[in-house]
Amino acid sequence: MSIDFVAIDFETANSFRWSPCAIGISIVRDSKVVEQITQLICPPNATDADCFDDFNISIHGITWEMVKDQPKFLDVWNSLIPKIGSLPLVAHNAAFDIGVLRESLDEEGGEWPTLTYTCTLVTSRRILDLPSYSLPFVADALKVELKKHHDAGSDAKACADILLKLCKKTSSSTIDSFLESLNVRWGHLSEGNWRGSTVRPKSPHDLPEPRTDADKNHFLFGKHIALTGALPSGILRSKAQERIAYFGGIPQGGINKETSLLVVGDIDPHRLAPGSEMSAKMKRAIELQAKGQTIEIISGFDFIPLLE
Fold it and tell me: What ranges make up the beta strands (E) of 146-281?
């Protein structure tokens, strides 16, 4: 596994995203954190302590006195650009951190960079089963050290370690393959344009992938299975397809030369006999049978027990 990226975290002075008061980054190369940077920031257009909300101070402990003589956001960001280079960014709740980046650049007249990014909050939700997906819960579940929550440097380091642990957990050798396995798309940012790193909308035509570690002795394993008609007991076709995939079968939307099993959902098994009324899929299956293809046809009533 050789993975390169930059984990990033911002803390803000108030509820506005254009008020960063600290940034932390962890640079990862060859799946190892090789550099960490934490920098306090004087928020854009801040002139006195009024720019800090008591609530924010209670979270991160940063005050006006601590940042009033620190560099402005744009100077800090420009100093980090050479270190980030073309590496993708990763954040825990990237919608917030990339929002801070965009709005702070707007506030100080900077240009949006061209970059890709993803989110360990989004990806953790796809893999883990937790009561909360906040950074402390995810870090604890993956046994990642979180030295001080809401310290930008500590949070960025934890985020970096979380992504590495998630990639290892899913046997992903690249972030591309990791996101692909979760059906999560890269977020993109460029001047005047951005798109979040989110779960790809599922097409109604998408079919579940068969489980590769299913029991090879199960009747459905390895079979290409098509469904026709309404299934008994009101079972949704999508649910049946999920169960087919769970047992290692390959759900199909229609009949083709790979089909090995056709389930006729709305016919009584006692009426599944020569001369019975046939759907278009059933007619097609019988045509392929006549040409030498091995396709078994079963009723929905005989099929349902196979899903349990």
Answer: 187-190, 193-195, 224-228, 250-252, 261-264
Is residue 208 a contact partner of residue 243, using CB atoms and an 8 Å limit? no
Q: What is the pLDDT of residues 244-253, one digit of tens each?
A: 999 999 998 8
The answer to whether the beta carbons of residues 285 and 294 sit under 8 Å apart is no
Whether 28 contacts 7, CB under 8 Å: yes
Where among 152, 176, 195 does a domain terminate? Answer: 195
Examine residue 213 and state whether it is found in any structural domain, yes or no.
Answer: no
By percentage, how much of the chain surpasses pLDDT 70?
94
Q: Domain holding 272: CATH number?
A: 3.40.50.10190
Q: CB under 8 Å to 284, separation ≥6 — which residues?
A: 255
Cβ contact 124:94 at 8 Å: no
Q: How far apart, in whole angstroms, are the C-alpha atoms of residue 120 and residue 107? A: 27
* Number of domains observed in the structure of the chain: 2
